[in-house]
Description:
By secondary structure, the protein is mostly helical. The chain is 65% helix and 4% strand.
Amino acid sequence: xxxxxxxxxxxxxxxxxQEFFRVxxxxxxxxxxxxxxxxxxxxxxxxxxxxxMSTMYELxxxxxxxxxxxxxxxxxxxxxxxxxxxxxxxxxxxxHAQSTLRMWRERRLDHxxxxxxxxxxxxxxxxxxxxxxxxxxxxxxYTEPLVGRESLRLLHQMLSVNMVHGVTFQGFFDLLQRVGExxxxxxxxxxxxxxxxxxxxxxxxxxxxxxxVCGRLTAVIGYEQGAExxxxxxxxx
Length: 237
């Protein structure tokens, strides 16, 4: 049994390493960035759903916006153990539930600072991906950290903005650019800034979204924990 476990663990570790180097675009970088993370494949038949925010939270273990090989191997090990315990059909639901509960507890999502922390973490993921290179004269006059269009497209995908709010990516991008202009952080007449947004504007949007997410999670998780503390059950027959 011990040898069987060792063989299974080696298989998971090997698969994680193969995936890491398959999706990593730059030889000199020792971590994955957001689009590469979203390109990862699951081991075997269970489907992880890397675009899920709580799954991403579990994968990026130190929450620096980067995923190292060690973090990916750790995550894949957890998935293999969970799949063996929960079964193939319940795996994805259990993974998302466990990751969401851990995120809610660790980051105190029932308090306002939880939403701010999540927004900052999302911005770290975007900043690691965004490689915006401005012309020298723009750099001299524009000191705001910037996020590129493709990074924002991934944020739009991760937060399901189109599905939840019915806003296309172009509408989403145009709206945030308008916010940046009204806040005095962006000049839309400058064509050199057509495909970027100030990171500060993106953070403002993320905080608003995360406050709504935290409110929903607190309502659900708080109710369930209250029912358990009272000795009752959430789902009554």
